[in-house]
């Protein structure tokens, strides 16, 4: 590690917990192309502060003989915005579209309506009292009937002029009622006659039948997201089931012989971070995760799992690069898959890929480094799943950065940030193998090639739970 790298490590450890998780103390200025650092210094760049561009190993060593590979990769790699567009477009092709299903209200939350929500009844479906009090006929004083009218009761007898009846909010209005007098606005005299204590308007506090809608009115358009409020409206309007776009079915295949599913890392083995992280994140992106399988680095098992899968989307983790046990590319080749995206000009995560396996089945290959996998998830899986689920694209938004963020010379960088006031504050620990930054983040900042100055408006990708809360997005 360079002196700079060591210094940054100490800086980070010297911060108190809040600061260490939150704020970048940077000013390093190492956003320069390869050549100025030893590879060891560049690897994770001192606790992953945004000080150095995450150049791939072949980029790092000019004249090492790998230069051609890097240039070739960059040539093939898709720009970050284009990769997202391609992923969304892949889901739009006719065969990929998911046929609408009929789901009970209990299962519809978060889905998108496949048909307009049309009222099956007038709302309210009968003239109803808006208040507790008396239904009255004509101007007061009134003679009050003995029996009152409660919500849910059958049609009450008509009122004669000068007559009143006790009525509850939501109860049917007796025929010939002219107004409802609120209980706090009526006084009964010694003879038991009811007097108004305020001036009254004709029809006051009566909700007439059809005030909100008539049977057949369109309440919501196809494409509306089913929120809790939509469930309430649908029930009120007479629905038991809804026609909705189903959640895309996703199968996760976790690759890597080095992965442990419990205990502490030991003997060169590490914990699988993606198995626990991806399923709930995919659900928050609208997917139904049908299975999570750990396949090790077994090419045959991977081939079999892909060919046997009936999922709309297969997500693999690891094995995207060109190491001896990186099987994803060779197997996609054997399967004659169409590589729609083969590498993206983004850091971390540039080896990510998107392939069409069948007309209605895609595969997103996430790199194994955990933050690189997050990058792939948001770059390729998010637009694909969102489009398959017919969800609306989030409105793009930007905030100024509190501190400068060093960019990669050619590629987009995604950097975890917290939102403080009207600024985005870049976080430490944003190296490709690190989750410490993203675990404390509210969003990812999209830093353009060349970096962003302090105060520069920077596009943000929200993390679903940061805005909606943890329960709202994992239904
Ligand atoms: N010669 C090159 N080597 C590498 C390049 C390159 O361009 N040329 N790119 C590097 C980058 S950038 C990334 S990212 C990785 C992508 O690697 P793979 O997708 O093939 O992933 P693996 O090699 O299987 O794993 C990489 C790294 O991540 C760890 N890992 C894998 N799965 C998990 C998991 N489920 N939970 C936690 N950690 C995981 C794995 O142990 C490795 O440390 O390639 C670079 N190499
Ligand atoms: O930096 Mo790699 O791009 O870790 O994914």
TrEMBL record:
MoaB/Mog domain: residues covered: 251-387
Keywords, ordered alphabetically: Magnesium, Metal-binding, Molybdenum, Molybdenum cofactor biosynthesis, Transferase
E.C. number: 2.10.1.1
Pfam families membership: MoCF_biosynth, MoeA_C, MoeA_N
Cofactor entry: Mg(2+)
Catalytic activity: adenylyl-molybdopterin + molybdate = Mo-molybdopterin + AMP + H(+)
The UniProt record lists the keyword Membrane: no
Any one Gene Ontology molecular-function term assigned to this protein's record: molybdopterin molybdotransferase activity
Entry function: Catalyzes the insertion of molybdate into adenylated molybdopterin with the concomitant release of AMP.
Protein's UniProt name: Molybdopterin molybdenumtransferase
Originating organism: Streptomyces rishiriensis
